[in-house]
């Protein structure tokens, strides 16, 4: 398994697409530095960091994170679709299940790396804006890790689709179709909690309930995120098992 | 040119591109179906002009759908040629590279405006269903359906350029994601950013400016992309 | 002399790497020009430049006495080509693939059936190319290249991936075209035997340079047989021959000579017998074209 992960990492590194994780902090910087909510917030007693966090997390988690995770999965399948990579890989003494798991783990690690870089961009925005309040470390960590956990089912579905389709456009189209409605879903107390694509936002939303480990109740994490993960992961896993290469 | 275009229409058969041009506008209106379905009474209280408010609600998603739709369609069109490197077969035909590029752009523009037309009918259809008032604002309806498409022409030109010269379609798709983030943050963007234009916002409150800029800059970006495409060796 | 294709000092470099250097191809009408060279010698790059897919770094290309950079479209209207792996649209049927090209070329629809007949794909005309075997895709590529009845056909490794019967079929087809339609054909290959069975002219490239260009007969003349003499004492016999002014070679106990007339053989046998050496066998050994080819390319590498 370790060898397989190393091989996957090697192929991915050579595809020169790893720098795409820099897109995360770039988006963070862009939103953080162009939003000027401070003026609207005058007179309200609030930690300065929260002001930036609200606007940055909103756009980042609502649209960027779900969409970019689909790009990662397409990239990790790209070289297999080209010139018969799948048949070469699967003719090696490895099981298909392990290949699937290795690719999934690697993508999740990349998303985690991007989340941490995004954390860096939050810091950078605060420094540029000259924030003096104490950095809300606990809340930010909740948000970074929470957002990462929320992508677990999304990455599983996208990996499934990326194995199924050769082109980038097809899995991306599906991703877009599911991601755009979350803009509306998060406004609804009835739909929002049950919509998997809205979970990155909910779990990164710093205004959420802070009593639990994450910003959303455990039941929601377990059912919507966990349930979605099991459904999509097993779906992709079994699809890959039966796929004729 | 006509010959190339009919060939290009043949090539998109069975690829689901027509379905996507249908899903785009349908999705935009369907979101309002959910929105109005859940809280119609509340939404109708928000404004005296129910049609106008409804059109604004629809329009809040149109730029996002256009930006992402363009990224998806251009990448699809490019990958049809990329898949077995059919560029080399296509360019070895007695056609100029400029015409090959023009044909792709025209195909995409036709799909985009077809989508806009559908958007207009879907918007009108659901608006009538909601019984928003007897006087249907046809001019406004047409404006909110077609203006964003015109304003998005520079994005179309840019995405086609990137998609047709990239071997890795991850690049144009990522550019498309940046585009949708920009479009979503339109209110923060300066007026010169092309991703702001489909929102029809500008400091003078004149949507027509976005349309004219879209056509003008779109043409310019199209020319730059075409020249670069023609200049490159075909691998 | 009228050349259909003529290049002058054609060169192409990718960064520091010189893929093709100072190539002077000359191809006459009605020839089957075998473009021969090991993989990576610059054959495909040259073909891409002939088709205007790549621009030469320097040098000129004239096809039908016109310049490819200036009159590309007029020239391409008379060229059919298949470059490297066949290109196709997998989601379309064989017929639709040809239809997509036919629309652009503006030839009549009946040509599609004709070319499908020529490459024997008529039965699968309405199946998606996705499920085709490599050989069928290759034949579809050839069909596409014949669609507009070109005067010049450029085929890059056309028998790649074909089974033996497929190879023979394509070979017969290629031989037929110049006779029946007056086509000129350029066919590239890394297999000498392949070119030997089809070509009338041969050009050999190695490391981007043209090291041989002449008729196939001239090439075969390189393949003069050598005559070997097996005797009871090779070294001794060889010395006697040298002493008698006969230039011979000696290796592994065998005396051998390049280029040897019947009279000379008789003379040598006489000399050997006179010196008391028993002659066991006199044999003529034909050199394979592979040997010659290797010799040519090795010579080039040695320089």
From TrEMBL, chain A:
The chain crosses the membrane at residues 20-37, 57-79, 100-127, 139-161, 168-186, 221-240. Keywords: Membrane, Transmembrane, Transmembrane helix. Coiled coil: none annotated. It comes from the Bacteria. The keyword Nucleotide-binding does not apply. This is MrsE. The lineage of its organism: Bacteria, Bacillati, Bacillota, Bacilli, Bacillales.
From TrEMBL, chain C:
Gene3D superfamilies: P-loop containing nucleotide triphosphate hydrolases. One of its GO terms (molecular function) is ATP binding. SUPFAM superfamilies: P-loop containing nucleoside triphosphate hydrolases. Residues 5-232 form the ABC transporter domain. Signal peptide: none annotated. It holds the Pfam family ABC_tran. It comes from the Bacteria. Keywords: ATP-binding, Nucleotide-binding, Transport. Transmembrane segments: none annotated. Belongs to the ABC transporter superfamily. This is Bacitracin ABC transporter ATP-binding protein. It comes from Lysinibacillus boronitolerans JCM 21713 = 10a = NBRC 103108.
């Amino acid at each position: 398994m370790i060898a397989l992960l190393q091989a996957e990492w090697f192929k991915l590194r050579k595809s020169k697409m790893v720098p795409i994780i820099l897109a995360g902090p770039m988006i963070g910087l862009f939103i953080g530095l162009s939003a000027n909510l401070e003026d609207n917030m005058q007179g309200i007693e609030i930690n300065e960091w929260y002001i930036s966090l609200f606007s940055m997390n909103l756009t980042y988690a609502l649209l960027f994170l779900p969409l970019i995770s689909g790009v990662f999965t397409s990239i990790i399948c790209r070289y297999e679709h080209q010139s018969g990579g799948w048949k070469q890989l699967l003719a090696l003494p490895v099981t298909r299940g392990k290949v699937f798991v290795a690719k999934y783990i690697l993508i999740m690690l990349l998303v985690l790396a991007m989340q941490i870089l995004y954390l860096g961009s939050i810091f950078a925005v605060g420094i540029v804006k000259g924030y003096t309040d104490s950095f809300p470390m606990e809340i930010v960590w909740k948000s970074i890790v929470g957002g990462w956990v929320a992508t677990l089912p999304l990455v599983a579905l996208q990996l499934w689709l990326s194995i199924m389709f050769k082109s980038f456009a097809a899995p991306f189209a599906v991703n877009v179709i599911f991601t755009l409605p979350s803009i509306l879903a998060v406004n609804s107390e009835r739909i929002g909690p049950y919509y998997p694509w809205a979970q990155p936002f909910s779990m990164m939303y710093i205004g959420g309930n802070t009593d639990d480990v994450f910003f959303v109740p455990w039941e929601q994490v377990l059912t919507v995120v966990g349930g979605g993960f099991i459904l999509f992961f097993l779906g992709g896993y079994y699809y890959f098992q039966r796929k004729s290469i | 040119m006509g010959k190339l275009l009919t060939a290009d229409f043949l090539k998109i058969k069975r690829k689901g591109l027509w379905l996507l041009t249908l899903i785009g506008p349908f999705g935009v209106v369907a979101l309002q179906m959910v929105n109005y379905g859940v809280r119609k009474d509340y939404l109708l209280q928000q404004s005296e002009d129910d049609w106008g408010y409804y059109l604004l609600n629809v329009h809040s998603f149109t730029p996002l759908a256009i930006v992402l739709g363009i990224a998806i369609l251009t990448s699809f069109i490019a990958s049809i040629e990329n898949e077995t490197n059919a560029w080399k077969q296509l360019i070895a035909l007695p056609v100029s590279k400029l015409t090959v590029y023009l044909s792709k752009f025209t195909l995409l523009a036709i799909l985009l405006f077809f989508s806009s037309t559908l958007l207009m009918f879907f918007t009108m259809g659901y608006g009538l269903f909601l019984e928003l008032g007897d006087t249907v604002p046809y001019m406004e309806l047409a404006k909110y359906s077609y203006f964003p498409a015109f304003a998005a022409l520079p994005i179309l030109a840019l995405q086609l350029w990137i998609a047709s010269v990239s071997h890795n379609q991850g690049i144009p798709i990522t550019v498309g994601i940046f585009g949708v983030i920009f479009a979503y943050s339109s209110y923060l963007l300066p007026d010169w950013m092309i991703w702001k234009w489909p929102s029809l916002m500008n400091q003078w409150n004149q949507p027509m400016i976005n349309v004219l800029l879209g056509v003008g800059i779109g043409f310019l970006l199209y020319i730059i992309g075409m020249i670069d495409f023609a200049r490159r060796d075909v691998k | 002399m009228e050349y259909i294709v003529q290049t002058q000092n054609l060169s192409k470099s990718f960064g520091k790497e010189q893929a093709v250097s100072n190539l002077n191809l000359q191809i006459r009408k009605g020839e089957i020009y075998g473009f021969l060279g090991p993989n990576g010698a610059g054959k495909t790059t040259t073909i891409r430049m002939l088709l205007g897919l790549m621009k030469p770094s320097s040098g000129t290309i004239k096809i039908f006495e016109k310049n490819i950079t200036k009159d590309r479209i007029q020239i391409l209207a008379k060229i059919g080509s298949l470059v490297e792996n066949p290109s196709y649209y997998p989601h379309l049927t064989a017929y639709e693939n040809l239809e997509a090209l036919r629309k652009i070329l503006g030839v009549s629809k009946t040509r599609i059936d004709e070319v499908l007949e020529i490459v024997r794909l008529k039965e699968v005309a309405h199946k998606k190319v996705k499920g085709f075997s490599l050989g069928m895709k290759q034949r579809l590529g050839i069909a596409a290249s014949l669609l507009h009845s070109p005067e010049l056909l450029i085929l890059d490794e056309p028998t790649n991936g074909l089974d033996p019967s497929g190879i023979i079929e394509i070979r017969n087809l290629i031989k037929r075209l110049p006779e029946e339609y007056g086509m000129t054909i350029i066919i590239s290959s890394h297999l000498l035997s392949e070119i030997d069975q089809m070509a009338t002219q041969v050009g050999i490239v190695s490391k981007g340079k043209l090291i041989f260009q002449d008729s196939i007969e001239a090439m075969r003349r390189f393949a003069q047989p050598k005559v070997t003499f097996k005797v009871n004492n090779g070294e001794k016999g060889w010395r006697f021959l040298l002493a008698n002014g006969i230039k011979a070679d000696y290796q592994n106990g065998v005396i051998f000579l390049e280029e040897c007339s019947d009279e000379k053989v008789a003379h040598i046998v006489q000399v050997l017998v006179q010196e008391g050496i028993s002659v066991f066998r006199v044999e003529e050994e034909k050199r394979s074209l592979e040997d010659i080819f290797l010799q040519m390319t090795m010579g080039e590498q040695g320089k």
